């Protein structure tokens, strides 16, 4: 069964001025769609064809690195659009997740700094993450299309730090993009929903 490109959960200009319609048009319609198209071509007629996306990501990481590049990035972006919303970001975080950020990550301000620092220090393309491993929250970073799934953790928030995600709006200023993401874009309700699924 071929996978399909999910529509953006908001209008292309909804995240303006923190992420422009031009960025979302290229990032969603071109980049995300390209990962999807190549992945669908590669899984057609193979054992991967009827597997769940998470299983394709985990299996291909060890067995088929070329497929993993596409499947990992397809998976990451399916969530990335939902990890943002108009009027998002900041400290207003649903209760159970807020408590876990306090107990596991030293509170909101430390988590915010550590998350942005992970994104800033990821050399080259990649992602920074909030993930749940063995029931506890952690902040991590990965290169290219890798994600916490392949390291035995569940990603609940990720920020794409490939240049295609910020170069139109921020040029080379990755730290400004990360700050806008955390302070103005994060959809904490969706992050909390994923957190609830992992910890329930
Ligand atoms: Mn991307």
Write structural notes for this entry.
- The chain has 200 residues and is mainly alpha-helical.
- The chain has 2 domains: 21-80, Helix Hairpins; 95-199, Iron/manganese superoxide dismutase, C-terminal domain (minor pseudopilin epsh fold), CATH 3.55.40.
- It is 52% helix and 12% strand.
- The protein contains 8 helices and 3 strands.
- It has a 3-stranded antiparallel sheet with strand order 2-1-3.
- A hairpin with a 2-residue loop joins strand 1 and strand 2.
- Helix 1 (21-43) packs antiparallel against helix 3.
- Residues 27, 31, 77, 160, 162, 164-165 line the site of manganese (III) ion.
Which molecules are bound besides the chains? manganese (III) ion
The CATH architecture designation of the largest domain is 3-Layer(bab) Sandwich
The coarse silhouette is globular
Strand count, sense and closure of the main sheet?
3 strands, antiparallel
Low-pLDDT segments: none
Output the structural class. Answer: mainly alpha
SSE string: HHHHHEEEHHH
How many domains make up the coordinates? 2
Strand content: 5-15%
Q: Mind telling me the CATH superfamily name of the largest domain? A: Iron/manganese superoxide dismutase, C-terminal domain
The helix content, as a percent range, equals 40-55%
Radius of gyration from the alpha-carbon trace, in angstroms: 16 Å
